[in-house]
Predict the structure.
Amino acid sequence: MEIKQVLKEFGLTENEAEVYLILLKLGYATASEIAEKTQIHRINIYDILERLQERGLVSFVISGKRKQYEVLDPKKILEIEEQKKENIENIIPKLLKYRELGKNPQEAVILKDKKGIKNILGEITKSKTEVLLFASGWGFKENFPDYYLIWHKRLRINKVKIRCLLSNKSKDIEVPKSLGYKFLPSEFTFPSTTCVFEEKILIIMWSSFPIAILVRGKEISDSYKEFFEILWKIAKK
């Protein structure tokens, strides 16, 4: 295969490959000399030489008032290719992870009304997995006084296991028997109530007009589950 073609496959443009080969034959040369030999305009020659320097293929020396360019050891091409290969090998695990994310896309929905939040709370009572709860005082009862007891009853009927983490600051709160719970030191406070179930995360900001975010995604739900287990180990009954 022709040398110039191989250099182009390496990633050089037609003009870059031509300048590289001419400079290799000349040894040392100024931009003007390279332009004369290649018939490429001198303004373009400077751009080409700069790109070749950025690739690590060309360097220059100042001789008197003249800047002379030279090609570095051609073996440098092999070193660059080896580095490229190493870089690609290093990112393969991340690429595979992104591929998995593509198969399991994440989705987020904002719920701005009590009806929407109530519907998701209803989904929790049918969860096929254990429910993990980071509670911030749990404003459920205040916002859904009629549904509160029904919700806990459905959890028991459907035999949904639920574990809850509370701050010591919330020890005065009456905790329903359907919850398995532990207390974290007072410095642990949750700004919102977060409920992890199946491959979903429900985050509720309680107020007179509560707002919630529902996130669906395996990777992020797994991260929350791991975080919960870490805190569960240091929490106390």
Notes: The chain has a mean pLDDT of 85. Residues 107-234 form a domain with the Endonuclease; Chain A fold (CATH 3.30.870.10).
